[in-house]
């Protein structure tokens, strides 16, 4: 259908049909499946006529269900406007990849795009046309359960990886039936919710929004994202759902965004408990005026817009929203083929195929971060190993938002070790929060017979994800006691961590000889973990989010602003400086940190010149030598600090990085170019600019160490 025909179609629609296009409900309203409507949706009531006017649906289905729902819908829709099927495909569909926070630790843009491409091929084969992904919220509070969905604390990584996922889902042409519409979320700054508590308030300056929080959304839109979801939170006093400055001035006027905006679940009517709307009429008016095109899971638009649209200005807003939705349906080819080539045969052939499992194994391997290794890894195959802990044989390693993953398809850690044909003395699966005295004694006796003890510890899946916020980020006491019991046996002790957030690992690091952060690794997690343990994969992951020493440090992140009394510059001052009295300021593990089985030496730093004009470029390079025994991947990171600016700037800011593969005894030169655009920021006076003067750069392995040099920007 040509876009001009969309306007003709719009002119034929009744007011009620238009409102229907702005409403999203669950697929369970159309299909008597095992998926039951929950929360706000269970309270909805539709007339039979309105049911066939709805524009979009969300919820679990398969190709057969989609076909039946769409066919019945089109048989009953007066104008033949097809439904758009949306779903939470967050880190894989049937083939589950590591959680996004884990994927970001790979620092591998191409890999992340590949995982989204796989997810799109699988999800589209099962009848979906859109996914609520990626989430590009900057996160700095590990108490927040939804850190699992983010790419971490850094603006650059969120920008790069968010755009990569958009490209992977949409693949440049939504007419291609193997693609999914990407919905970027949560606009804006949901990751800064106070106290790390879901649905909570965000109060953050425009300066920080523009310099730190906005860029990832903007880059995802530049990558072609066709839809964006507003966030649950209040932003500087106004809920995002009703925030005209955010959704119209920034998103549409400044950024030129022309796509669809959708609310989060029930968020339109949540304006009432927020205290900014008295009733559904207020909520609908505020949301439509702000720019919400699709109301998810509530019916304020149906209830209020018939009366509100007697005002011609409101009717114009309604028509604009409907047109955007129809254009999106047209762009993904629904008017030509409302089923988008989906079929049972295609679905069966596509889901969880061997090629996709290989991608999942690669992703899980590259996402794991080696936090400690006292020369006990990699393991020798001749050693007799015992595997103990709540995740020893537990298949629940997919992580939150793996809605269509099947635990029967998961390679557990036990199975991964068995697949290696190593000497496995035994496997003892424990509870998460309690281990009886009898069970502990039994485990101790069995562990005595092993050469190496491997503990598979971590959080239960329900402790992460949406509504999975916690105030305590340590492992359960029962697991710490188990760790200490095993330590007393004086055998090599390796801890594998399965979790969805940075944890307080101070107790774990003290006891373990090696610690491997595996996150929720997905379908192929067990194979990937075994690959790392036995040296078939050299761990290369780097943290995308700092690990605090305790909750008292939160938020702790590498790119904080400078203070007037920085601790590092006041070494002779004992008290009156910015510090904690009981712990260091620095996190336990900093952003960008990660060990491997290789050791890399950096030397021969070279800068082409030390003055940069606004029309020039400067190159800097460093030699990186693998002085270890294993071929490895090194992520060379370049950080920048603006020494004097109009506003206080971060003490360090990642501006570029490169990954290289280096063989033992090999040296590679890594080169970066720097130009004036790399130095720009928003200065609080509606200007993106750079400052003449000194800039400090650091080249290194992580955010806490490296070789520094200075460049002066001149006019």
UniProtKB/TrEMBL annotation:
Q: What class of enzyme is it?
A: hydrolase
Tell me any Pfam family this protein matches: Fn3-like
What is catalyzed by this enzyme?
Hydrolysis of terminal, non-reducing beta-D-glucosyl residues with release of beta-D-glucose
List UniProt keywords, sorted A-Z.
Glycosidase, Hydrolase, Signal
Q: Which domain of life is it from?
A: Bacteria
Record has Hydrolase as a keyword = yes
Which part of the chain is the Fibronectin type III-like domain?
634-703
The answer, when asked if Signal is one of the entry's keywords, is yes
- Give the GO terms filed under biological process for this record: glucan catabolic process
Please list the GO terms describing molecular function. Answer: beta-glucosidase activity
SMART domains assigned to the protein according to its UniProt record, in alphabetical order: Fn3_like
Q: Give the Enzyme Commission number.
A: 3.2.1.21
Instruction: Give the protein family.
Output: Belongs to the glycosyl hydrolase 3 family.
Q: What is this protein called?
A: beta-glucosidase
**Organism encoding this protein:** Clostridium beijerinckii (Clostridium MP)
Name of encoding gene: bglX
């Amino acid at each position: 259908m040509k876009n001009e025909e969309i306007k003709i179609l719009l002119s034929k629609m009744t007011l009620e049909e238009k409102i229907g296009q702005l409403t999203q409900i669950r697929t369970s309203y159309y299909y008597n499946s095992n998926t039951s409507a929950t929360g706000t949706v269970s309270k909805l009531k539709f007339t039979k006529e309105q049911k066939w006017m709805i524009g979009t649906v969300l919820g679990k289905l398969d190709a057969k269900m989609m076909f039946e729902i769409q066919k019945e819908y089109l048989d009953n829709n007066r104008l033949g406007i097809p439904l758009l099927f949306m779903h939470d495909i967050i880190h894989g569909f049937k083939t589950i990849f590591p959680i996004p926070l884990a994927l970001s630790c790979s620092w591998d843009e191409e890999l992340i795009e590949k995982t989204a491409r796989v997810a799109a091929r699988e999800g589209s084969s099962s009848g979906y046309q859109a996914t609520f992904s990626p989430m590009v919220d900057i996160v700095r509070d590990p108490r927040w359960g939804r850190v699992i969905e983010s790419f971490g604390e850094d603006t650059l990584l969120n920008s790069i990886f968010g755009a990569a996922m958009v490209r992977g889902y949409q693949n440049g042409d939504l007419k291609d039936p193997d693609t999914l519409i990407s919905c970027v979320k949560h606009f804006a700054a949901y990751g800064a919710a106070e106290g790390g508590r879901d649905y909570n308030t965000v109060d953050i300056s425009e300066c920080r929004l523009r310099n730190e929080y906005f860029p990832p959304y903007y880059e995802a839109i530049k990558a072609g994202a066709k839809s964006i979801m507003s966030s649950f939170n209040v932003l500087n006093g106004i809920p995002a759902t009703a925030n005209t400055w955010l959704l119209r001035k920034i998103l549409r006027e400044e950024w030129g965004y022309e796509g669809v905006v959708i609310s989060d679940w029930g968020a339109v009517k949540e304006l009432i408990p927020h205290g900014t709307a008295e009733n559904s009429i207020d909520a609908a008016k505020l949301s439509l005026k702000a720019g919400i095109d699709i109301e998810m899971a509530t019916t304020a638009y149906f209830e209020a817009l018939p009366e509100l649209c007697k005002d011609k200005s409101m009717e114009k807003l309604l028509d604009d929203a409907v047109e955007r939705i129809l254009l999106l349906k047209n762009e993904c080819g629904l008017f030509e083929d409302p089923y988008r080539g989906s079929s049972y045969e295609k679905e069966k052939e596509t889901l969880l195929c061997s090629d996709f499992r290989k991608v999942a194994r690669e992703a899980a391997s590259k996402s794991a971060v080696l936090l400690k290794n006292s020369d006990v890894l990699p393991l020798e195959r001749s050693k007799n190993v015992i595997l103990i802990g709540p995740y020893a044989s537990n298949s629940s390693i997919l992580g939150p938002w793996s809605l269509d993953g099947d635990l029967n398809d998961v390679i557990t850690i036990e199975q991964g070790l068995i697949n290696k044909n190593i000497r496995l003395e035994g496997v003892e699966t424990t509870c998460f929060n309690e281990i009886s005295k009898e069970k502990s004694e039994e485990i101790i006796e069995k562990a005595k017979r092993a050469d190496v003890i491997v503990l598979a510890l971590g959080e239960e899946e329900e402790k992460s994800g949406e509504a999975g916020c916690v105030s305590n980020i340590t492992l359960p006491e029962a697991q710490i006691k188990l760790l200490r019991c095993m330590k007393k046996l004086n055998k090599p002790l390796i801890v594998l961590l399965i979790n969805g957030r940075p944890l307080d690992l101070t107790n774990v690091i003290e006891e373990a000889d090696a610690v491997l952060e595996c996150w929720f690794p997905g379908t192929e997690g067990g194979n990937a973990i075994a690959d790392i343990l036995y040296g078939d994969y050299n761990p290369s992951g780097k943290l995308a989010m700092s690990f605090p020493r305790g909750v008292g440090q939160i938020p702790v992140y590498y790119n904080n602003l400078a203070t007037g009394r920085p601790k590092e510059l006041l070494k002779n001052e004992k008290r009156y400086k910015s510090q904690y009295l009981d712990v260091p300021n620095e996190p336990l593990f900093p952003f960008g940190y990660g060990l491997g089985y290789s050791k890399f030496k950096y030397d021969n730093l070279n800068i082409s010149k030390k003055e940069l004009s606004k029309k020039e470029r400067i190159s800097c390079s460093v030699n990186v030598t693998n002085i270890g025994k294993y071929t490895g991947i090194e992520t060379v990171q370049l950080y920048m600090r603006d020494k004097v600016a109009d506003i206080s700037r971060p003490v360090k800011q990642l501006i570029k990085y490169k990954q290289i593969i280096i063989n033992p005894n090999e040296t590679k030169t890594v080169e970066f170019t720097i130009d004036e655009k790399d130095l720009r920021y928003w200065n609080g006076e509606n200007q993106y600019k750079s400052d003449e003067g000194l800039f400090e750069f650091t080249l290194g392995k992580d955010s806490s160490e490296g070789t520094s040099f200075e460049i002066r920007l001149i006019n």
